[in-house]
Specification:
By secondary structure, this protein is α+β, with helices and mostly antiparallel strands. Helix content is about 35%, strand content about 30%.
């Protein structure tokens, strides 16, 4: 699922292996290193990540590189 907010396209990803604060920190660090203006929202209970400011292919590539395979919804 994707939508726009503040002129940024937002996409939600299912990240099955994301389960703790360490996972959240690793994901945040990796995506912020790609683009420091990226906006992130986490739903840890449902293992969902919403990202604004990066193309879906970029997000999936970065997450895969750090061991968190993801699928855009």
């Amino acid at each position: 699922m994707s939508w726009k907010t503040k002129d940024l396209e937002m996409t939600t990803y299912i990240v099955p292996d994301m389960s703790c604060g360490h996972c959240k920190a690793s994901i945040t660090d990796a995506l912020m290193a790609k683009d420091g203006t990226v906006e992130l929202a986490f739903d840890m209970n449902n293992r969902l990540l919403t990202v604004a400011g990066l193309e879906a292919e970029q997000v999936i590539e970065v997450l895969d590189e750090i061991g968190f395979p993801a699928t855009a919804t």
